[in-house]
């Protein structure tokens, strides 16, 4: 077990932005603990994968316990896992509500508690959560009440965490994306989705990765909700 390298935990790490985050942190020589429901083992000995439902507290315990056992510490947590179901509010089902709150809220709560407990041992650490600009700037034709309920809650929780743990050396920030080109969106939808942004195009996964890396390397930034949304949150 080595404690000379920084260690990052990334949720929702099997594809899309999560998988890109794993690559980016490894390029910076971080040890990575990557978790997702169906993530496969990695050939990289400096990447520990833990398969499981992030909304299950047992998954959170395994991720943090196994990560500390392998790498000795937790320096950064990226709460990337999230689901989005676009439906008119009255058409959401109890199953939709349970699924979204399990991943977006419970998935944040359980693992963040355990990660911060480890960070407190070293009087340093950083929690970054991926939210959505829809929580601040709703768009007609993009029904998003449950996304706003859950991810907007994470924006508020981020600020609360930042203040609660500021004197403990632990920072908390969030990245608030617009619509990003990822496996979530079929290519034939890109033109219409891009038009929803003042800049006229969708963001790239690298834009979100770069924002996370910036925040992780910015020791005087905490409580920040960094909008990476092509101007959506500024207006139309």
Individual helix count? 6
Can you say what the CATH homologous superfamily is? Answer: NAD(P)-binding Rossmann-like Domain
Strand arrangement across the biggest beta sheet: 3-2-1-4-5-6-9
Overall strand count: 9
Q: State Rg.
A: 17 Å
Oligomer: single chain
What is the N-to-C order of secondary-structure elements (H for helix, E for strand)? EHEEHEHEHEEHEHE
Domain count: the total is 1
User: Do you know the CATH architecture?
Assistant: 3-Layer(aba) Sandwich
- Using the coordinates shown, work out and report the CATH topology: Rossmann fold
Q: Determine the mean pLDDT.
A: 94
What helical percentage do the residues reach? 25-40%
Strand-pairing-aware structural class: alpha/beta
Principal-axes geometry comes out as globular
Percent of sequence in beta strands: 15-25%
> What is the CA-CA span between the terminal residues?
52 Å
Which class in CATH terms? Alpha Beta
How would a textbook summarize the main sheet? 7 strands, parallel
What does this structure look like?
The chain is an alpha/beta fold and 236 residues long. It has a single domain, classed as 3-Layer(aba) Sandwich (Rossmann fold), CATH 3.40.50. It is built from 6 helices and 9 strands, in the order E-H-E-E-H-E-H-E-H-E-E-H-E-H-E. It has a 7-stranded parallel beta sheet, sandwiched between helices. It has a two-stranded parallel ribbon with strand order 7-8. Helix 5 links the parallel strand 7 and strand 8. The longest helix has 29 residues. It starts with 6 loop residues before the first strand and ends in an 8-residue tail after the last strand. The mean pLDDT is 94.
